[in-house]
Amino acid sequence: MVGWIWDPIVATAAILLGLLTAYGLLRIGHKIAKPRPTVEKMKTYACGEELKPEETHSDSEQFFSPIRRIFRPFYRYIQPVHTGVLSTYLLWAVVGFIIILAIILLTVR
Amino acid sequence: MIPHAPILAIVLPLFAAFLMPLVGLLSKRYNAAKACDWFAIAAMIGTLLLVADMAPSVWGGHILIYKLGGWSPPWGINLAIDGLSIQMALMIAALGTLVIIYSAGYMQRDTRKDLFYALTLLAITGMMGIVLTGDIFNFYVFLEIMSVSSYALIAFRRDSNAIEAGIKYLFIGSLGTSLILLSVAMLYSFVGSLNIADLGAKLATYRDGAQPVPAILIASLALFVTGVMIKVAMVPFHTWLADAFTAAPTAISALLAGPGAVVGIYWVARLPYLPFGLPVGIILISLGLLSMVVGVLMALTQRDFKRMLAYHVISQKGYMVLGIGLGTLGSVLGAQGGLFHLLNHSTYKCMLFMCAGAVLFRTGSQKFDELGGLGKNMPVTALTFLIGALAISGIPPLNGFVSKYTIYLGGIEAGLPIVTAIAVLVSALTFASFFKAFSSVFLGQRSERLRETQEAPKLMLFPMLMMAVICVAIGLLPALGFNIVGPAQSAAENSAGYISQVIGGI
């Protein structure tokens, strides 16, 4: 059905070929210019402070903070209304029903 | 075909559920710890074989009509299995079997396995009944069987979070089923029938616009749509889902995300054509788009592995509802894409929950900030999660790409390129969200506490690997999926054919 627009076998072969090419280029690049980091550069540190592995773990909530900034109205107004209060959620369902009823009235009549 | 296969596909898991406490007692008496596991697996394999046995006949163009007690429809209750029903039944049976196999590993530390399997098999009975019945009141009965079992399963571990989630789902879910019951009562009072085909035949005059649609029918449709949307968890009816999927045992999260999603979408696919046949396309498209966007934006900021997956269930169901909605505007690609996405999503979301369960089983945590670096300890789980993550993000050549791509084309075909643009954007955000999940759980530094973590047990890995293979196979050979989805989409839209085959003509 989608053969005319999407041939998965050819596309997969192309993707794999692309990956192999990229890997090959990476290997060649490493051979030509070998990385020689100093001992200090190999250390994980922040402001000179040595960190434990668990302390280097990125904060999951702030992982995509730029995206949070782009969709600021959503995170400011929509996310906080997910309060977990059951009566509020039941009210949402009732409001949803009224909207659906209104749309059906407008489209059917 | 095996005689009485349609009813046996419902009765087999039902009887297995009722026999499970007895098997549990015997397993304790004779010290056979795995007896409940094997009994449940055997029941599900039997159910799968029964459904698979019906499939060739249905795909051959027939609608299987099973008259209970020999009473002809519309007088008696009947099961009616067309292309749409068989797709759903196959998915419920196949994914249900894999979930039960996974449960044998995941629930090995629990002591009430007989109760767990009894409830799980009852939930599967309800799901199977919903997609096979040709009677709208029986749809309600099976919906209640599935729902009540699910409430109990969500609260199975009896900790405070599980009980709160179970109660929330109980209240909101009961509101949904009550609205559906009220809708069915209104339909019965107006038409005098409960048979879906008979209802479709008698409401055809309103569908054609020959007569104005009466208020009772409008109210009944609104109640029915709202009830179904609560079960499907479309925004703003989605509020029960995140808590329920987070707190439930992960095998149950997988069951509700996979086979559980099937039953709601089955009715979304039926709604535009039977029994009402009134225009609901704009509602489906609006709710689908809203759910896609809200679901993915909520998922992006989650700190809990299962909660993030739960919000993606809402987002991805939005794609399905959107696709089916586009189908009502004449886009065949949209309708097929929606049903294809159901097939794909149920598979990889089930698998993703299983991966989360495997991590939880081995580490005791589902918090992103407490995990990390597990790719070295759990390579198979990491690989299957990666396949699922790429599939749900719509990355070629996996199955999620094919169905999402079909929905994108459906948006253009329906003359709504803005819908396609939003769908592509949501896919990009989905990828971002799963990149975070994979990075937080499987990459990066590993804390001392996780250094000795082992790979998940083989019984848990087997269904995960099976689903990963399905994701790759359907991605590479999409015709496998379209051969199932094509007849399903044709059957859903062919209400006249359904009516004529079930009750012999309009």
Write up what this structure looks like:
The complex is a heterodimer of chains A (109) and B (506). Chain A has helices at residues 8-32, 39-42, 65-70, 72-78, 86-108, and strands at residues 45-46, 49-50. Chain A has 109 residues and is mainly alpha-helical. Chain A has a domain at 1-57. In chain A, strand 1 and strand 2 form a beta hairpin. Chain A is flat, with a radius of gyration of 27 Å. Helices cover 75% and strands 2% of the residues of chain B. Chain B has 506 residues and is mainly α. Chain B has a two-stranded antiparallel ribbon. Chain B is globular and about 75 Å long. Chain B has a domain at 279-490. The longest helix of chain B has 32 residues, at 160-191. Classes of the chains: A mainly alpha (109), B mainly alpha (506). Chains A and B meet through helix 1, helix 4 and helix 5 of A and helix 6, helix 9, helix 10, helix 13 and helix 17 of B.
Q: Unreliable segments of chain A (pLDDT under 50, ≥5 consecutive)?
A: none
- Poorly predicted runs of chain B: none
Number of helices of chain A: 5
Radius of gyration of chain A: 27 Å
Largest sheet of chain A: 2 strands, antiparallel
Q: In DSSP terms, counting alpha (H) and pi (I) runs of 4 or more, how many helices of chain B?
A: 21
Termini gap of chain B: 28 Å
What's the SSE pattern of chain A? HHEEHHH
Instruction: Please give the order of strands in the largest beta sheet of chain A.
Output: 1-2
Order of helices and strands of chain B: HHEEHHHHHHHHHHHHHHHHHHH
Class derived from helix and strand content of chain B = mainly alpha
Count of β-strands of chain B: 2
Give the overall average pLDDT of chain B. Answer: 91
Query: Biggest interface, and residues per chain?
Result: A-B, 45 and 67 residues
